[in-house]
Every structure is written in structure tokens, then in C-alpha cells.
Amino acid sequence: MTTTGPAAGSPTSVTQAYVFALDPTLEQVSLLRSHIGGSRFVYNALLGLVKTNWEANRARKDAGERVAKEDYLGTRQFDLQKTWYAERDELAPWWGENGSSTYNYACLNLSKAFINFRAGRAKFPTFKKKGTAVSVSFLSNAVRLVDSHHLRISRIGKIKTYESTRKMFRHLERGTGRIVASTITQRNGKFAVSFTVQVSRVVPTPRAPERVIGIDVGLSTLYTGAGPEGEHTLDVANPHHLIKAERMLAHAQRVAARRQGPRPGAAPSRRWKKANSRVVQIHTSTRDARRNLIHNTTSMLAKNYDVIVIEDLNVKGMVKNHALAKHISDVAWGQFARQLKYKTKWYGSTLVRAPRFFPSSKTCSQCGTVKAKLLLDQRTYHCVACGLTIDRDLNAAINLAKYGLPGTNSGTGRGGEVRPEQQKLVGTARPDEASTETLTLVSA
Q1: Which residue positions in the chain have pLDDT lower than 50?
Q2: To pair with 51 at 20 to 30 A between CA atoms, which of 212, 265, 307, 421?
Q3: Residue 374's pLDDT is what?
Q4: Using one digit for the tens of pLDDT, what is the confidence trace for 264-312?
């Protein structure tokens, strides 16, 4: 059975994520930490009750006693909530200080952990440590936007955001968006809120394949783009975000290593916390710079080109090369392809993936001769058949662009068939897609 996505021009609902940095007051910081701690406490308390109950029942079985199914504490969300309501006065007399959705989401997260354990996708749930579990989720009605620069959280009040929330706020104002859930996260002493929003969009009509570009990803030059006629249209140098930060990172890690860090029976010192926060800050800045470049590049490509052709790289296998693993991880090729996948659907362009073993680098873009071997350090392609001398990455980009031309085996063009997964409008987006600038098409 062939699965097809929504018809072009028809409205559909997609789940989109928004992330905004928060600017809370000192009192609000204390309240946010109280909610985060309360969520962690409920998770650990219920996990402890379930483990104790299961161990007691196991001991009864070993003793030859019959144990009924009803003797086991349930691990479904509503079973855990029922257990919490029955035990909360004894376990946490302070439970009324925080919103109820804080505890309900803790039950939901623990229930998912048990589901993953039973399905073999994860190990048995473990207790969350203070300092590692630094987030709390809320139901849709517990967090709402007041205006384009403020949000209101139940039991906490009105909090200012560092950046404007106007794109999301406009969706909520005109009724084309609905908050499904929200999560407050603390990283390195800073707070951010991520919203999961159902947005009404109109599926754009696929554009005619007039502007075709092939993208070759690399390490020296991050993205090399070219058209099928050989025009060099994109050249993005590799900024080496991690490599440039390594010197500062090494110094910060040496400082933290000389401090009294966390170990069994001893709490970390305040000096270690301060030194470690510097390490986290460097990693965060590196990650944000990398994501910003990928977002800007993928948005530009999806808006300005009708057909974008990339290679289906085996990134997981490539990082097994220990000489290149760090450099490959730094450029995040998988993130680049993932963002192109859903952004091309948002803007009506088409993403084509060349097969994993397509010889884009070994093939001459002028005569089509394929070399038997091309070493990685050979950065210039020289064809012995026609005499073409060209940059290796540019040659590969041209071949990828030709692969995406209408009438080729890529299946693009009017009347061509695109793989079913390319026809579906993306239904989900991760919380880290916060600052992506997208053109929202709203139905009338």
C-alpha cells in the first residue's frame, strides 16, 4: 500500500517546536528550581515505591507464597498518579507549593521509562540525580504567552523572555496554533522554555524543478554547491567550531580537574561548580554556533532552490574512523540532512538523496568517466579521458546536481514519482529547532 501525504494546497496540522531564553527574577529562579526539584522528587519517590513493591513480591514468591497481579504497583501513567495522590501527604507535605502538572508529567516520564524498559529499548529506570535532571514539563494550560515578550507560568507568574516570541504569539492570536506542552530547562544557570505547538499550515504546491543544486559536504569546505551546468553557487568554509574552542576548553577542564569534584561520599566544592560551569558554557557556545550555521544554510537552500540533492552518507559508520571522528562530529552532517528534510517540505522544494554508493567524487562531471580509485588527500580531480581539472568537491556537487535533473533516476520533475517519505509533510520537530526562521503558510 502506498502512503501519500496531504494534498498540495490543503491545510494540515504539524507539530513545531519553539525555544526561548528566559530572564527570570531571583524570586522566580527559586520558584523554577522548586518545580524542577519537585518533578525530580516525584520521579524518584515513585520509582522507589515500585522497586520496593516488586522486590517484596519477589521475596514472597521465593518463599513459596502466591502473589496476585493486584499486589503489584502499576507503572502506567494513571496508576502512578493514583499512587502519588495516595502517598503525597506523607512523602511530600510541601506538594502544594508547585503546580499539579509538574507531578503529572513526572508520572508520565516514569511511565515512558518503564515502557521503554519492557520493549527492550532501554535499561531499567534509574534514579535522577540532582544537577543532571534540570528540567520540568507543564501541561498546555499551565504556560501561556501574555504578549510577544512575556509568558505566564502557573504558580510562578509573569516571566520576561530575552527574545521576541512574536512568530509563535501571532499563531496563538489568530487561532492557527495551539500549545500542546512546554518544558522549562536549566543549563549552566540559565533558563529556557521550549514549546510544543500544533500549527496549522497549508501544504505548499511543489515547485517546478527550475533551480537545481547539488550539495557536497566536506571537512575543509563545509558545503560546496553547484548547478547541473557547472556553475559554482555555494561555498561555505568550515568554521571548525570545536577545534577553535579546544584551547579554551582544555584550560577550563584543567582548572576544573584541580578542584574537588563530585565523588561518593563528598559533595563538589563551590569552586568546582564555578569551574565546571565554564566548561559547560564553552560546549554550549560551540553547539549554538554550529546549529546557527546549519539553520541559516538549510533555510536559505530550501527557500531559494527547487531541487536540492545531497548524498545519503553513512555518518554512523564514518565516525568509526578515529582520525576523522572528531572533525566529522563537529560538522554535524546528519543534522544538516535532517533539517533539509523538513524545511524543503515547508517551502515546497524537493530533497533528493543520491544513493550511498553513488560515485559523485570519482565521476568526471564533463565526460562521465568514473575513476577506480580516488584518495582522500587528492583535493583536485583530474580526468585522464577528457583532461578536465577541477576542484574535487565542486566536481562532486555538479554530479549531484545532474542526478537531480528531471528525467533522471532521481524521479524529480513534473509527473515524476518521489519516495513516499518525501511526500509526507513533516509531523514533528525537536525542541532545539527554536530559532528557525520559517515562512508559515496559513490557510484562509
Answers
A1: 1-5, 413-444
A2: 265
A3: 84
A4: 888 889 999 899 989 989 998 999 999 999 999 999 999 999 999 999 9
Q: Which pLDDT belongs to residue 419?
A: 46
The answer to whether the pTM exceeds 0.85 is no
Q: Is residue 442 part of a domain?
A: no
Residue where the block lists cell 540525580: 129
Which residues, 6+ apart, have CB-to-CB distance to 251 below 8 Å? none
Q: Are 279 and 249 in contact (CB under 8 A)?
A: yes
Question: Which of 78, 94, 112 is CA-nearest to residue 38?
Answer: 94
State the CATH number of the domain containing residue 224: 3.30.420
Integer angstrom CA distances of residue 210 from 236, 399, 416: 23, 17, 14
Domain around 176: 11-26+135-202
